[in-house]
Amino acid sequence: MKKIYWLLNLPRTFIIYLLIKRCRFKFNIFKDLERFAYGGRRYKNVYRTFSEVILYDKCFRNVLDFRLKKESYIKAIILRLFFPIKKDMEIGRCEIGGGLVCYHGHGTVIAAHKIGENLSVWQGVTIGKNVGCEQGPVIGNNVSIYTNAVVTGNITVGNNVKIGAGAVVMKDVPDNCLVIGNPCVIIK
Fold first, then answer.
1. Which contacts (CB < 8 Å, 24+ apart) does range 122-130 have?
2. In the chain, which residues have pLDDT < 50?
3. 3-state secondary structure of 89
């Protein structure tokens, strides 16, 4: 049954795939796709992988919508016509490197100033400005932010950092750390 559903949806996935192939941010999009294609969804054929991920993963649709909006609102509108996005997940205007992956995405808000490559975000995460700050956080490469964590303010989060579930991070975090608790405790 799943294969029949996939075959019936090939025309609309192919249209979006063509939009992406003509996009100047396609490197970041395909890097995102690699991270979203976990489990049985990774195939040798990139189009097959893309079509399955866009059909079954609404969080990928939101990330793709974010990437397409940076190039052209028309492309983002075409994506939304063929594949509706999650209404309870928001990615604001910011710089995000390739490899962004959101797991579940319910109640997730990403509004940082700049984010490096390979960010992993779970549900309920809030990344953004704090009261009295003009800029959101700057987040490094290979960062994982787990369920219901909050990262706010004009702070810097280093590379290879893991922010535990429920942590409230409002101060700078150095590289290669684990952050837990409210208020946050940094463990090197």
1. 122/146, 122/147, 122/165, 123/147, 123/148, 124/148, 124/149, 125/149, 125/150, 125/151, 126/150, 126/151, 126/152, 127/151, 127/152, 128/92, 128/152, 129/153, 129/154, 130/154, 130/170
2. none
3. strand
What is the separation, in whole angstroms, between the first and last Cα of the chain?
A: 49
pLDDT value, residue 40: 64
Neighbours of 114 (CB within 10 A): 15
For 8-41, letters b (16+ CB in 10 Å) and e give: ebeeebeebeebbeebeebebbbbbbebbbeeeb
Instruction: Give the Cα separation of 181 and 124 in Å (integer).
Output: 16
Check if the beta carbon of residue 106 is closer than 8 Å to that of residue 124: yes
| 63: Cβ contacts below 8 Å, ≥ 6 apart | 32, 36, 91, 100, 101, 102
